[in-house]
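Propose amino acids for all 121 sites.
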């Protein structure tokens, strides 16, 4: 049961990150507006989109555990930064909920990954 929850949650998380990365890399007008309202330059969308794709690749590859650790850590920083950026910009709490949900997902997936039977290191 725990393995099923892990795989399902990881799949949903990875799909959400890929969709987010594609939106950022394609210059989605809604995301562009959100970045502008937060005070970030639009080129940050391209940087974050590329980093999201690299992070997804790091999470999905099974060979190098340290790369996975860094990818998970990167998403914790990115999603935590997103959550607090919305709050500190004075936006409604509802605006920051997607970041908070993804942050909870990355922490849960990481915890389930670390506690999987047969996992070394």
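Proposal:
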């Amino acid at each position: 049961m725990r393995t099923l929850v892990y795989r399902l949650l990881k799949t949903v998380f990875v799909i959400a990150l890929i969709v987010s990365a594609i939106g950022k890399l394609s210059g989605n007008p809604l995301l562009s507006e959100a970045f502008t309202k937060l005070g970030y330059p639009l080129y940050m969308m391209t940087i974050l989109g590329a980093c999201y794709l690299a992070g997804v690749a790091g999470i999905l590859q099974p060979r190098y555990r340290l790369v996975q650790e860094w990818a998970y850590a990167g998403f914790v920083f990115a999603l935590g930064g997103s959550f607090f950026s919305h709050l500190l910009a004075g936006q409604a709490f509802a605006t920051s909920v997607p970041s908070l949900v993804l942050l909870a997902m990355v922490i849960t997936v990481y915890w389930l990954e670390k506690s999987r039977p047969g996992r070394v290191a």
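Helices lie at 2-25, 29-38, 43-60, 65-88, 93-114. Residues 2-114 form one domain.
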